[in-house]
């Protein structure tokens, strides 16, 4: 009903406007005779009484969209007064001519033949033509005119971007903009109110409001903890929101974002925990938790102890996953010292909110009761440092370690040495009082420190064990005599040549070492043995730095007279009591070059021929040794040269017996030789290569002779193989022996086996065969049986 009423109002308005305005546009061409008038929306039989200038006079034509009456709707009429007796003929061309718009060629009435939609096309441009029906001449010039489709409210508003999603912080000020939604209307925004939209909220009040003209959604202050998500339905209505207007809706999903507007809150104001006194450090002793209604970073808190822990026994850390406060020990608990604690714990938000007065906090009380546990013994010191002299006697008391049971029961303690730390068992300990004594002599020069581990165990509970390290330092005593730092050997030149050996020259500088380590340091005293104080050759001089210089008293040393001198020196330390030792310095008289360089230090070198140096002598000896080695190798190779193993044809086998000590492998030895050649001559086909060598060139065998099953000739077979071996270019220049298991077909000599002698008249006793082992036992039984049968 509203649609038809709107169409009727528009049509009446159009008709009235056309009637009151007969001339809307000016003509495009002018003629001398008559004038044409175009009437828009005028019924047939009506005429305009006003007269215009000669020519076509046009105005716009209008047609209502979506008109769907039973008859075509009249759009307008074309007319000219240049015609008489109805001889004018009207026609249209252009957009929609003949399809959408039709003209009565006699009257000039234009009708819309189809239902029009302004949103598809708002106007049509056509060309009008009027001709004489008889002559066909144009009565008026061809002229364009426009037919506009007049809009009606036939399109509802649409939200093209919906549905919408928006987020806004909770507790925002009233009127805070959340989001702006926009709807569009396809109707003509110029004509009427068909496209004038007004926005309103259908769902979402009283939490949100919308500006009716702009579509901006505003927030009324709300708390996320009360409700987090909202669905707001927005309506856009055309016709300015009046009755009869069309509308469209969209949904806006609004989420309130969290801010830190809630403090943490402990679930209980008092927590009570019972913690055993032997709880390890860093282990959990209890949990507390403060809940926060906020989410994310706003809900995170940190825990701290603000009262009741002056000695720093406890600490509380935050579990980042569960947001719990974990109570741990920083120091061991002692039931005997303190049995309960009262702590005040605080939970504080990590993130602060600018609109709040600082980070939110909450506190709770934690009461801790220490539970008594059977604790291991406690040493008076974690580490003991003891000292003992290296010459201390066996069973000397070195020191004492003490431990006690911290429990109220006060169990007795037993002490032991961990023998893994005293493998040589150099120390003992009294199990009752912890007194450590010496079990073996000590030597500081071997080991200066001994680190042992002492264990303390409760008598009533052997599982309670404690350990302490005992470091024993071996103190030094003067029990080692000083000695030369190295085995000195001095050299001096004979003949006293200028620039070489002069009187009072330093032959050697000697120093000493001492394994002892006195506190005041070492000081060594050097002196010659008494019998050498007045020797005419050498003397010593103290250098005041724990070393001496050996000096020569003259420069007339000769190797023929004496090649080597021994100078015994006594070295004494400054210990208490002082220790001394006698060390001998060896001095050699050597032949020197003109520059004083030692060349030889023995008598034999002195008698060498003039001009033959030591290097030349060594070279000659090396050559002689090399020649001897070559000769020995040559003789050895000659002796080990392989001799031919094949017996010559002219030699008698009975006089040339070759003995081999190799027994062989018996029947099981099938690897040494290929015995298949003569075992079955009937199966031989082709050439069998030699097994003793691997020829570089493969010898092409000739076809072998095939003997029949009953015609095997072994002699011929062997001769053929011998001929092939002699003519084989790849064979070595010597023959080899192969053992064949084929004995032939028979011999005129008969059998040489002793197995057939059982029927002889021999009185030999074969019992000894049984003593040769299991292999000959059966043979002995056979011969014994033969003897018994013969006697029978």
Secondary structure category:
mainly beta
What would the average pLDDT be, to the nearest integer? Answer: 75
User: Uncertain regions: pLDDT < 50 for 5+ in a row?
Assistant: 1-5, 13-55, 497-501, 603-610, 686-710, 756-762
| CATH fold name of the domain at 483-600 | Immunoglobulin-like
Shape, please? elongated
Draw up the topology in text.
Layout: H1 2-20, E1 35-37, E2 55-57, E3 61-64, E4 73-77, E5 88-94, E6 101-103, E7 109-112, E8 123-132, E9 143-150, E10 164-169, E11 176-180, E12 198-203, E13 208-210, E14 216-219, E15 229-237, E16 247-257, E17 265-266, E18 270-276, E19 284-291, E20 301-307, E21 314-318, E22 324-329, E23 340-349, E24 361-371, E25 378-379, E26 383-389, E27 397-400, E28 403-404, E29 413-417, E30 427-429, E31 435-438, E32 449-458, E33 465-475, E34 483-484, E35 489-493, E36 506-513, E37 525-528, E38 538-542, E39 547-552, E40 564-572, E41 580-592, E42 598-600, H2 603-606, H3 614-639, H4 676-679, H5 714-726, H6 774-791
Parallel strand pairs: 1-2, 3-9, 10-16, 18-24, 26-33, 35-41
Antiparallel strand pairs: 4-7, 5-8, 6-7, 8-9, 11-14, 12-15, 13-14, 15-16, 17-19, 19-22, 20-23, 21-22, 23-24, 25-28, 27-31, 29-32, 30-31, 32-33, 34-36, 36-39, 37-40, 38-39, 40-41, 41-42
Short characterization:
With 792 residues, this protein is mainly beta. Helices cover 11% and strands 32% of the residues.
């Amino acid at each position: 009903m509203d649609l038809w009423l709107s169409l009727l109002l528009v049509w009446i308005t159009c008709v009235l406007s056309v009637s009151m305005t007969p001339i809307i546009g000016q003509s495009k061409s002018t003629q001398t005779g008559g004038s044409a008038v175009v009437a828009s929306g005028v019924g047939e039989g009506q005429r305009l009484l006003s007269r215009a200038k000669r020519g076509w006079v046009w105005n716009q034509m209008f047609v209502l969209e979506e008109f769907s009456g039973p008859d075509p709707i009249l759009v307008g009429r074309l007319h000219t007064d240049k015609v008489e007796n109805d001889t004018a003929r009207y026609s249209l061309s252009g957009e929609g001519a003949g399809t959408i718009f039709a003209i009565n060629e006699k009257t000039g009435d234009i009708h819309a033949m189809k239902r029009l939609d302004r949103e598809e096309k708002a106007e049509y441009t056509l060309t009008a033509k009027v001709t004489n029906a008889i002559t066909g001449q144009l009565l008026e010039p061809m002229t364009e005119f426009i037919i506009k489709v007049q809009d009606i409210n036939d399109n509802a508003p649409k939200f093209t971007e919906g549905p919408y999603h928006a987020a806004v912080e909770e507790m925002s000020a009233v009127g805070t903009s959340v989001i702006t939604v926009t709807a569009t209307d396809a109707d003509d925004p110029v004509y009427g109110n068909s496209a004038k939209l007004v926005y309103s909220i259908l769902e979402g009040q009283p939490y949100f409001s919308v500006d009716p003209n702009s579509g901006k959604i505003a927030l009324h202050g709300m708390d996320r903890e009360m409700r987090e998500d909202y669905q707001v339905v927005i309506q856009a209505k055309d016709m300015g929101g009046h009755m009869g207007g069309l509308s469209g809706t969209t949904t806006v999903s609004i989420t309130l974002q969290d801010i830190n507007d809630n403090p943490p809150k402990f679930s209980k104001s008092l927590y009570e925990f019972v913690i055993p006194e032997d709880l390890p450090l860093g282990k959990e002793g209890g949990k507390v938790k403060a809940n926060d209604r906020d989410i994310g970073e706003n809900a995170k808190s940190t825990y701290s102890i603000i009262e009741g822990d002056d000695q720093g026994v406890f600490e509380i850390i935050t579990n980042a996953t569960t947001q719990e406060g974990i109570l741990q020990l920083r120091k061991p608990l002692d039931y005997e010292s303190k049995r309960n604690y009262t702590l005040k714990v605080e939970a504080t938000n990590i993130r602060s909110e600018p609109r709040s007065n600082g980070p939110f906090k909450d506190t709770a009380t934690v009461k801790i009761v220490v539970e008594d546990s059977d604790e291991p013994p406690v040493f008076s010191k974690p580490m003991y440092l003891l000292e003992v002299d290296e010459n201390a006697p066996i069973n000397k008391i070195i020191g004492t370690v003490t431990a006690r049971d911290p429990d109220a029961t006060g169990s007795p303690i037993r002490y032991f040495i961990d023998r893994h730390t005293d493998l040589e068992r150099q120390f003992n300990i009294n199990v009752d009082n912890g007194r450590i004594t010496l079990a073996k002599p000590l030597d500081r020069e071997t080991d200066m420190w001994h680190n042992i581990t002492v264990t303390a165990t409760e008598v009533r509970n052997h599982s309670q064990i404690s350990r302490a390290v005992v470091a024993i330092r071996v103190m030094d005593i003067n029990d080692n005599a000083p000695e030369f730092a190295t085995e000195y050997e001095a050299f001096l030149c004979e003949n006293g040549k200028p620039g070489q050996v002069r009187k009072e020259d330093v032959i050697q500088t000697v120093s000493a070492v001492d394994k002892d380590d006195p506190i005041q340091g070492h000081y060594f005293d050097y002196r010659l043995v008494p019998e050498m104080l007045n020797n005419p050759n050498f003397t010593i001089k103290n250098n005041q730095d724990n070393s001496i210089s050996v000096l020569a008293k003259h420069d007339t040393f000769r190797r023929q007279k004496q090649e080597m001198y021994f100078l015994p020196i006594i070295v004494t330390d400054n210990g208490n009591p002082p220790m001394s030792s006698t060390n001998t310095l060896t001095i050699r008289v050597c032949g020197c070059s003109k520059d004083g360089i030692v060349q030889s230090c023995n008598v034999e070198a002195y008698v060498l021929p003039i001009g033959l140096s030591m290097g030349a002598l060594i070279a000659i000896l090396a050559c002689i040794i090399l020649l001897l080695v070559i000769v020995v190798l040559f003789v050895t190779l000659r002796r080990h040269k392989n001799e031919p193993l094949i017996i010559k044809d002219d030699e008698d086998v009975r006089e040339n017996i070759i003995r081999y000590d190799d027994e062989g492998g018996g029947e099981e030895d099938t690897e040494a030789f290929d015995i298949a050649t003569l075992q079955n001559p009937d199966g031989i086909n082709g050439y069998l290569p030699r097994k003793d060598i691997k020829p570089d060139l493969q010898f092409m065998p000739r076809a072998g002779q095939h003997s029949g099953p009953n015609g095997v000739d072994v002699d011929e077979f062997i001769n053929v193989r011998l001929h092939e071996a002699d003519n084989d270019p790849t064979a070595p220049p010597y023959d080899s022996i192969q053992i064949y298991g084929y004995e032939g077909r028979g011999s005129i000599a008969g059998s040489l086996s002793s197995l057939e002698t059982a029927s002889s008249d021999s009185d030999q006793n074969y019992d000894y065969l049984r003593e040769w082992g299991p292999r000959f036992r059966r043979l002995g039984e056979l011969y014994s049986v033969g003897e018994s049968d013969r006697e029978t």
